């Protein structure tokens, strides 16, 4: 996960704190988006602008030239955004003529021309006044700043995704992340245009590219695990659609990016988030893990990249995600070596074929919280005085100067979670029962979680159109 430091010659050197580096694509940050009313002209359209912010209409494009903006006596527009006049955060960015949609009469290609002072963005890239860009199905159109998404451009003849998926959802071209098995794209439900994340997984059998292929049984396992879960700090699943070569998981859209990005944010100067903010997040994560273990689920891959933020505010709600390696503990024993090496518990690293318990999640969570409070990882290949495997097996921790600002009580909690012997390591219930979890910051986190529950959550409705088969 961390790279680039030259090895020192001394075998007994004191390891220095190393900076964290992202080993996967960082999720794109977004603000919440909502929906408005729809316009329905009678003539046949060649495309539509789907409004995905409250007060923004859905517009069927029938004319080769269509102009959007605030409009005025000397600036005629086809759509004037009048419903947004009370949305000061957005309306102030809109020019009299914001942009124009033009379809070339010969090529039939569609272009967006930016006429605004504050600028129009396509897929979060600023065009700038006087600039143009061709539009493709699924492109996002924002005004002023990337987060102010107002439209998704949708063509009338989209055949990129299977009918079983596009009948209920529109899939945009906006990437929320990418992994070895596929990608995560922003989408929305056609029924109410609420925003979702669509995880597209390649399940096509291939001997040459086997590492880039998701196994059907692993996908089914992840779906079955997520269907059992309902917790405010865990990403929800809404739908599952499979076809011959691909599987699509429709999950909760979480727009604040990865927790990893927050931990390495330059405003914290790589010194950790501090005692107060660290406890605020610790409560949420411990509560989520306590819930998982109470329903017989072990995550087995807890790390900052698998924790999402609901928004970009400093104190936000966290969501645990990516249950591809999760295991239902009541169904079978856990012996497989899996997860991310720098977050793996000693009993997984040892790989002796001995059964381990859900306490491996407590170790991983201890690593996450160590980074949260300090800004550097407890175990790393860049600590060259000993191998990372030995660091983990010995439970060797080095506390640098930033820990001077963290109480001994918190340091002892982290050490307790990173106890090598599993039987001496606390359970999530034991952690939650400590006085450490009864502080003002933890109470605030509990109250904020309760407030988040007031928002409606869609229920899972699985749709399996065709079971995956392999030759």
TrEMBL record:
Q: Which SUPFAM superfamilies match?
A: Protein kinase-like (PK-like), SMAD/FHA domain
Q: Any idea which GO molecular function terms this record carries?
A: ATP binding; protein serine/threonine kinase activity
Instruction: Name the residues that bind ATP.
Output: 199
Cofactor(s) recorded for this entry are: Mg(2+)
**Domain FHA positions:** 66-127
What keywords does the record list, in alphabetical order? Answer: ATP-binding, Kinase, Magnesium, Nucleotide-binding, Serine/threonine-protein kinase, Transferase
Which InterPro entries does the record match to this protein? FHA_dom (IPR000253), Kinase-like_dom_sf (IPR011009), Prot_kinase_dom (IPR000719), Protein_kinase_ATP_BS (IPR017441), Ser/Thr_kinase_AS (IPR008271), SMAD_FHA_dom_sf (IPR008984)
Where does the Protein kinase domain lie?
170-437
Concerning its family, UniProt says: Belongs to the protein kinase superfamily.
Q: What is this protein called?
A: CBN-FARS-2 protein
């Amino acid at each position: 996960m961390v790279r680039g430091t030259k090895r020192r010659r001394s075998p007994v050197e004191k390891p220095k704190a190393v900076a964290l580096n992202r080993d996967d694509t960082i999720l794109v940050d977004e603000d919440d988006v909502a929906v408005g009313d729809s316009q329905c002209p009678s003539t046949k359209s060649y495309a539509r602008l789907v409004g995905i912010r409250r007060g923004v209409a859905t517009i069927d494009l029938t004319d080769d030239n269509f102009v959007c903006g605030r409009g005025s006596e000397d600036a005629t527009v086809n759509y004037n955004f009048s419903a947004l006049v009370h949305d000061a955060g957005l309306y102030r960015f809109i020019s009299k003529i914001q942009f124009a949609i033009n379809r070339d009469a010969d090529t039939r290609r569609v272009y967006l021309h930016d006429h605004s002072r504050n600028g129009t963005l396509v897929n979060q890239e600023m065009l700038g006044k006087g600039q143009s860009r061709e539009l493709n199905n699924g492109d996002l159109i924002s005004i002023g700043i990337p987060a102010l998404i107002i439209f998704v451009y949708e063509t009338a003849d989209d055949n990129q995704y299977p009918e079983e998926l596009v009948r209920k959802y529109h899939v945009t071209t906006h990437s929320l992340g990418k992994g070895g098995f596929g990608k995560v794209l922003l989408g929305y439900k056609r029924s109410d245009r609420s925003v979702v994340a669509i995880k597209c997984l390649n399940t096509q059998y291939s001997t040459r590219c086997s590492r880039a292929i998701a196994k059907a049984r692993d996908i089914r396992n992840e779906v079955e695990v997520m269907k059992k879960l309902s917790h405010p700090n865990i990403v929800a699943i809404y739908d599952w659609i499979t076809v011959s070569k691909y599987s699509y998981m429709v999950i909760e859209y979480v727009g604040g990016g990865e927790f990893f990005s927050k931990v390495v944010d330059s405003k914290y100067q790589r010194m950790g988030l501090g005692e107060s903010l660290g406890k605020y997040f610790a409560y949420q994560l411990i509560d989520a893990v306590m819930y998982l273990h109470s329903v017989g689920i072990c995550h087995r891959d807890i790390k900052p990249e698998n924790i999402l933020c609901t928004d970009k505010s400093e104190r936000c709600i966290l969501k645990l995600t990516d249950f591809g390696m999760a295991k239902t503990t009541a169904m079978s024993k856990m012996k497989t070596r899996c997860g991310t090496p720098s977050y793996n518990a000693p009993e997984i690293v040892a790989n002796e074929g001995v059964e381990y318990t859900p306490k491996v999640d407590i170790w991983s969570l201890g690593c996450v919280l160590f980074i949260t409070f300090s800004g550097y990882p407890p175990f790393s290949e860049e600590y060259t005085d000993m191998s990372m495997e030995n660091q983990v097996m010995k439970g060797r921790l080095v506390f640098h100067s930033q820990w001077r600002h963290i109480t001994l009580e918190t340091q002892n909690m982290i050490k307790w979670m990173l106890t090598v012997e599993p039987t001496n390591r606390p359970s999530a219930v034991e952690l939650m029962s400590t006085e450490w979890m009864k502080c003002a910051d933890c109470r605030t986190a509990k109250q904020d979680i309760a407030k988040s529950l007031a928002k409606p959550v869609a229920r899972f409705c699985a749709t399996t159109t065709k079971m995956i088969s392999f030759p």
